[in-house]
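TEACHING EXERCISE
Course module: macromolecular assemblies
Task: Read the component lines below, then compare them to the predicted structure of the full complex.
Student: A.B.
Group: 4
Components provided:
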Amino acid sequence: MMLLSKLLSFLLICSLVYIDSTFAKAGYIEVSPENCVTVEQDCVMDVSINWYTEVSKTVCIRVTDQQIRLFCHKPSQGQNFAITVQNNRNIVLELLSEQLEPLESTEISLFHQHVKKRRRDIAWSIF
Amino acid sequence: MTVLGSCSLGLRVLFLISAFCLSPMASSTDSAYLADEGVSLGVSLGYGQLANPVYKKDDIPLYALPRIEVFAGDFSFANTQFAWTPVWGDNYQVSLFTQLNEDGLYFTKHSAILAAVRTASGRPSMTPPPPGSGVETPVVIKRRGDITKISKRKLSAMSGIEAIVDWQNWRFSAYWSMELTNYHKGLQGALSAQRLFLFDQHLVLLGVELQHLSAGLVDYYYGSALQEMGAGFSPFLGHSSQKYNLKASYQYQFNQQWQFISDIKYQRLSSGIADSPLINDSNLLSFYAGFAWNF
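Instructor-supplied answer key:
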């Protein structure tokens, strides 16, 4: 009986932890597009940001590309906030509270496409 | 190396057989004609020879071949060829290029040393037979002399423009070049067609090429003037001429680094060159086969 009650207590605690992790994050930040494929050194593109949070009435959005940019006094929910990003590696976007506490974050993944050059002849063409 | 006319026929048969039999297995040609940006190095060990048509000059042996290629933007360097490709699209490119003239290779010091080693090469005498010997001789009569006493021919560099068009698995190209080094002020052009077959790790390339050489270029390398006549050669004035080339390549890719490579080229010289007293062979077969390591 004692063992059973301990087991039930453990399951209850686990459930609460799960519920907390699932529903406490009542917010998100999304960026579109999520990937940038470039043949250049830097990726330069226009992106659109959507976000939502219940934690704060106004929020900031921090964009870390070539520099760190902060867009504050934004409402708790926003759609199609357009900016231009430029970087030579992944670009991080964060949703922050007015006190600049991180709430959510997302990334734009950057992929360098290796440029193929056209040859005058195949490799190891001897004559 | 002198070859008979049947070799030409053989290559043509190979070309036709390959065109019909390998077509269903062929895939895109793109990968073979593309290179990564940056430096690419390799070395090959094997055996082959570049046929040398010049009298008493040995074929040039090939044992080790380097591959030094650099692709940077619109510029490329591949062994001795430098190219700038400012115009290009999905299936065409136009390049300005600089490369060494192959005729100069036949007279380089290296091949001259080899020829000196093989003084008694056993080549048949080309002096005309005595009158009344009973055999009808060709119209062209060559008188040979001492090849070591002819005037020096320098290796020249050519620069020009080349246009390439890719269509399905074919590559058509045309180039026109003029001399940079100012030894002969010659011109050279060519038209060529190549058919590429790629299947699994196998690569087969078959090609035909028609080269045109201006009179200045031919006369510089193959003409026979005062010094050559003093060395015992009959006089000869070079005219604009053609070279007809048939080429076949086979490569097998073991992995990223290791490759088996082979090339064979049959070349026929037109009479404008072949009639020169400095020329011994007008049908030439060059080949190479070996293993290549790509760094």
